[in-house]
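Bench notes, bay 3.
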Amino acid sequence: MKRNKLVLLLTLFTLFSVVGLQNAQAKTITKDAETLYGKEATFQYNYDLPETKTSGDRELYLQWDQSELLKKPSAFTIQLDQENLKTIPLDASNTKKEVTVKLPKSSQKKGGHTVKILFSGVLKEGVCVDQNTSANWFTILPTSKLKVEGAVENNQATFSNFSAQFSNGKTDVVISDDASEDTVNAATIMTSKLQRASEHPNRIQLVQEKDWKKQGDHVIAFTEPKTTYNKDMKAFVPKDQSKALIQANLKNVKGKTVLAISTNKEGSLAKSMMLFTEPQLFNQLSGTELSMDQLPEITESDSADVKFKNIPLASQTLSNLAEQSAFTVYIPKKIDQEKDIQLQLKLKKSALLDVKKTELIVTINGTPFAVKLNDIQSTALTTKTIAIDPKQIDVNQPLNIQLKLNGAQSLDPCKTTNHNNWLYISNDSQFSFPQLESTETEVVKLNDFPTLFNQSDIPTIVQVPKIDQQQLIQIVDLYRASYTGYGQPKFTLAINNKVDESDDKANRILLGDLDRNPFLQKDALLKAGFIPENAEILASIDGASKNKKAIDLQILSTNKNLKSGELYKFIQQMPQVKNNATVMVKSNNEQIFSNEQQVRDDVKDDNGVKNSNQISNTALILTFVGLILLIIVIVYFITARRKKK
C-alpha cells in the first residue's frame, strides 16, 4: 500500500513537473489580437535558438476567431521556414476554433526561424466575386502559443534584433570614469550607430559612470583588462575577466536589457565594432552570446561596379502578389560625386504583362525614378539604364533601394491570373559608380566633408582635450555626422592637448574650445569677416594640397553646454556650403555664416587683375598696329605726289 502511494506521488510529481516545464517554455506569439483581412493575408512570428536542441517540446497551439460569413474553400495554412505544415479549413460551421500542430525537428536547429499563418478567405463561391471586403476577416488570439525548448521570444533581445530594440528604446552606453581612448572610441562608434537608426536619437546617450542616471531601458557596457567600475555598474558587467579577444553577452539585469562587451587585450574594442557595424558580419550574428579569439578580415572594394548578386541579392520577381522589394547598397569608397551614377537593370517580363499599363518605379533614398517597360521582352533579358545625379539622392548614406511594379494588379474580380503578370529583375543588374581619379585638390573646402576623410588613404585622428560629458556629446555628434554611403569612418581617438602640425601621416579633426586653435583667434576671425564675440561654433579646414596629404579640420565652440544633436546639425551644414568656403561660423542667434563671399571676392579680384592686364596688352598691340598703318599711309601719299611731279 505504501509502495503504491509512493509510486502515485512520484507519478503526480513528474506530471506536474512536465506541465510546469512546458508552461515555462510556452511563448505567446502575439500580445494583442491580430486580425487578417481580405482574400489573402499573412501573419508572421520570429523566434531564435542560440543552440541546436535534440529533445523537448516543439509545437504550435493556435486559437482564433473568424467571420461568420466565411465559406468553403476558406482556410489557413501554418508554415515553418517556408515549409507547409498543416491547412485548416474555415467555414461558419466551425465550433472548435483551436488547433495544436506538432513542429518538425528543423524547428530546433540553431538560428532564426519564422512561423507564418497564411489566411485565404472566401465569402461567396463563384466567378467574378470581390472577396476583398471588411467582412472577410480572421483573427489570431493572444492565447496562441509556441513551445520550442530554448526558443528566445522575438521581443527578447538577441544579436539578430538588438540593434532595432536598442535604437528604438532609451539606451545608456556607459563607460568607466577612467576609460581608455580605445574604449571611448568603441563606445562612440556603437552610440552613433544606434543614433543613426533611431527616430529619437537623443534617447541614446554615451555617459561616464559618474554621470549615469540609470534611466535607460537598455544598457551597453565596455570592459578592458584594466577597466574599473564602481558598485552601481558592477552588476551589469561580467565578474570574470574575458578569456577571449572579444566576448559579448545579452542578458536581463535588474529589469534592463544589457549588452556587455569585453576583451582580454587592450586596444581591441574599437576594431571589434566591425562585428556590429559591417552588414556582412552583423547579419551573421544570432543568439545572446558571442566569443571570438580572432576578428574576421574584410577586404574593402573600390570597384566601380556593384552587382546585385554581390550585395548579395537574389533575382527578384515582381507581380501583384509581390509588388515591391527593398534592399540596401553600400557605395564604393572612392566615387566622383560630380558625375552620374548608372543603374543598369536587366529585366524580363511575362507574356501576359501589359507594358503599356505598367511601370517600374525605382526609389533611391526617397527619390523616385520611373522606368518605361515598353521595349522589355519576354524571351530574353533587356537592359534598362538609369542615370542618377548623386546630388539628388544624398550619397553620404547607404543607398536604400525600393523596386515597385505599378499596374500589374487588376481590380476586375473576374481576372484571376494577376499573379502571371510578372517582371523579372536579374541579379546580374548592377550599379556603376564613377571613380574618383585623384583625391588631391588645389584647395580643400568645407563642402568636401565628410567625403575626403573617408576617401583618404591615410588615417584620421580625432583629438580632444579631455573626456567629460560635454566632450562625449561632441564626439558622438561628429561620428554620427561623418557616416557616409560607404560605411563607418575609420577614426582613431586621441585624448590630449597637443597638435603636431608637421605630421603629414594622418588627417586631424580637432574638437574642443575655440581657444585651442591659434589660427582662429580674434584677429583671424575679424580678417575673415566674422564678429568673434558672436561666434558659438566654428569650423575651419586646411590642407590636402599637392604638397600636403593630410587634412586639418577644426570644429570648435565657445558654448560649453552644447546639447546632444546641436553639433551634429552644425556639421550637417558643412557639405551644403557652396563654392570654396573654408571657414563656417554659427552665431549665438542661430545664424550660419561662411567666408564664401570673401573667397568669391578674392577670385573676382584675381580675375579683375587678369582682365585689366589683358586689356592693357591688347590696347598696346592695337596702338602699335595703328602706328604702322599710319606710317604706311603717309609713305604712300608722299610717293604718289612725287610721281605726279
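Next record in the batch:
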Amino acid sequence: MKIKFITQVLVFVLVFGFALACSEAEVEKFEEESFIVEKTKDEVVEESDVVSYFNFPLQLKPGEKEQGYFLYLAQKFGNFLETYDGVGYYGFHSGEDWHIRKKQTERDNIGTNESADKPVYAIGPGKVLKVSKIGDGSRGMWVLIEHTVELGGRPFIIPAKEIESHGEKASYGKDEVYKIYSAYGHLDKLVVKEGDNIDNINNENTIIGYIKDMSGPHLHFEIRHPKSQSSGTGQLAGDSR
C-alpha cells in the first residue's frame, strides 16, 4: 500500500490546494477565503500555485450562501479506513469528494446534501479528452479535461509538498509543467463531448454537466500531473463507487 500511495500521489498532486483541508467547522470559511473561487483567467498570478490559475468546479449561486448553502469536503484524497456493518475497509481514494449542502439551523455545520443536479464547471480553458461511464453507469459519467499553457505563456507551477495519510507519508518537489489534467466524476446530463474546446470562464458555457441524482450524490474531483500514468487516458482512478 505504501508504494501505491507514493505512486498515486502524482495522480492527485494539486488538489490539496483546492481543499485547504476543510473541517466541518471551516466549510463556510472555504468559500470566503479561498482565492481559487475568486480568481479569473484575466488575473495574472506570478510565481504561485498552479491552482491559482483555475476556478473551483462547484459554485454557489448569488444568495445561496445567505440561504444556508455551503461547500463541504466529504472525503479527502489518500488512504482511507472505513467501517461498514462492522467490517473494516482499507483503500486509496485518488480524488476528493465534494458536496453542496444546506444548513437546517444556524449552528448546523453538516446540513443536508443538496448536490444532486447541481452544475459542475470546468476549472479553466482546455480540451475535453475523455467522456465515459463509471462502471455500469449507475454512478454516472466522468469527464477528463486537458489544460495546456498557451505558447509563450508561463508554466503551471506545482509547489513542493509532503503528504501524510493514515500513517503513510509521501513527498514531491517543486515542478513546472505546461500541461495538467482535471477529472470530474459522478456526472449526469453532460453538455460536453470528447473533442470539445472550453474557452470561457465564469459563465454558463463552462458547465460540463450536473451531479448525478443517486445515493450520496457528490462530485469526485481530481487534478492529474502530466507524468502520471493516468493522465490523458484510462479511467477515473480509484473511484469505483
